[in-house]
Amino acid sequence: MSTLVDIVNSIVDINQEIEDFRSTGIYHFFVEWFAETMKWFYVGWYKSKLFAITFAYDVAKEILTSINMSRMIETAFNSLDSRVMQIVTFFRIPEAINIILSAYTTRMVLTFMGM
Fold it and tell me: Rounded to whole angstroms, how far apart are CA atoms 1 and 10?
């Protein structure tokens, strides 16, 4: 008789587990699935942005190299007085101008790419 009671209890327990899954388990399953999917999409979006930025920076370097912008800046600063040139090189203004031009050109390339 106890075996029959154990079987009936097992059937009731299984039915309760199925009902619990139908009432709350499905919700938790889809919430976890949606969270994992959103994390996957966000990581993919972030990696694509990172790739686009590095690609745009490489393109910007090539653009600046092809128009020989560094040489133009160097010749402009070489025409300055030696005292002014010392101050300019002390504050590393030519390097700052190169960085700003590189950043602006990278932004231009990213805008052209639609990013």
Answer: 14
pTM for this one?
0.61
Number of residues in the chain: 115
Burial of 5-19, coded b for 16+ CB within 10 Å and e otherwise, reads: eeeeeeeeeeeeeee
**Which residues, including other chains, have CB under 8 Å from residue 53's CB and lie 6 or more apart?**
106, 110, 115
Q: How many distinct structural domains can be found in the chain?
A: 1
Helix axis angle for 69-78 and 82-90, nearest 10°, is 130
Which residue's entry shows tokens 């994992």? 36
Place 1 in a pLDDT band, splitting at 50, 70 and 90.
low
Distance from CA of residue 108 to its chain's centroid? Answer: 18
Domain enclosing residue 53, as ranges: 2-113
